[in-house]
Amino acid sequence: MVILLYKWFFASLLVSLPYFTDSQPDKYISPHPFFISVTEISHNATDKHLEISCKIFTDDFETALLKSTGVKIDLFNPKDKALAEKQIAAYLKKHLVIKLDSKPVILEFVGFEREDEAVWSYLQVSNTAAPKKMDISNDLLYESFDQQINLMHVSVSGNRKSTKLNYPDVNTSFQF
């Protein structure tokens, strides 16, 4: 019995050894049981901007970017930050489309930053009045995960609304 326990202990230690000996300890992210993104959209009446932030698990985002571009990217320590920003911007503009009062808008990429196990990406739409209606097409990570959930929170004129898009649902609309 003791020998069996020792074998089990050493087998589990051997299997987990790569996680403890990684040359970049902060690079390892434990797998998570769900696939989710959070997109916050807020109209800034003072600056007349639509401010957009997307929070996506880093490992999921890297997987989606690899499928999209064919190039492996390390969002923890990008070798070429300008290239990483270009790839992120292109991906987000393709998979997050916004119409304000039935008119498509151009998303401007502002930047990105890492926070724990996620990446925050920032976009904006300049020179826009508070919309009465916002149509959103959001299929972030759908090409990679068929269990993907995209949460969205939208604030206009102090009125906050939220929704959840489960794969394969892509479109939603908000009235203000």
Keywords:
single chain; 176 residues; alpha+beta; six-stranded mixed sheet; four-stranded antiparallel sheet; 10 strands; 26% helix; 40% strand; globular; disordered N terminus
What features would you describe in this structure?
The protein has one domain (32-175). Strand 3 (96-100) and strand 4 (103-104) form a beta hairpin. A six-stranded mixed beta sheet has the order 5-6-2-1-8-9. The protein has a four-stranded antiparallel beta sheet with strand order 4-3-7-10. The chain has helices at residues 2-20, 58-69, 81-95, and strands at residues 35-44, 49-57, 96-100, 103-104, 108-115, 118-125, 133-138, 148-156, 159-166, 171-175. It is globular and about 40 Å long. It is an alpha+beta fold and 176 residues long.
SSE inventory with pairings:
Layout: H1 2-20, E1 35-44, E2 49-57, H2 58-69, H3 81-95, E3 96-100, E4 103-104, E5 108-115, E6 118-125, E7 133-138, E8 148-156, E9 159-166, E10 171-175
Parallel strand pairs: 1-8
Antiparallel strand pairs: 1-2, 2-6, 3-4, 3-7, 5-6, 7-10, 8-9
Q: What structural class results from the helix and strand content? A: alpha+beta
Biggest beta sheet summary: 6 strands, mixed
Quaternary state reads single chain
- What is the count of β-strands? 10
Number of separate domains: 1
User: Helical stretch count?
Assistant: 3
Low-confidence stretches: 1-28
Ends distance: 68 Å
- Basic shape: globular
Radius of gyration: 20 Å
**Percent of residues in beta strands:** 35-45%
As a percent range, the share of helical residues equals 25-40%
The largest sheet has its strands arranged as 5-6-2-1-8-9
How confident overall, as mean pLDDT? 87
Compressed to H and E, one letter per element, the order equals HEEHHEEEEEEEE
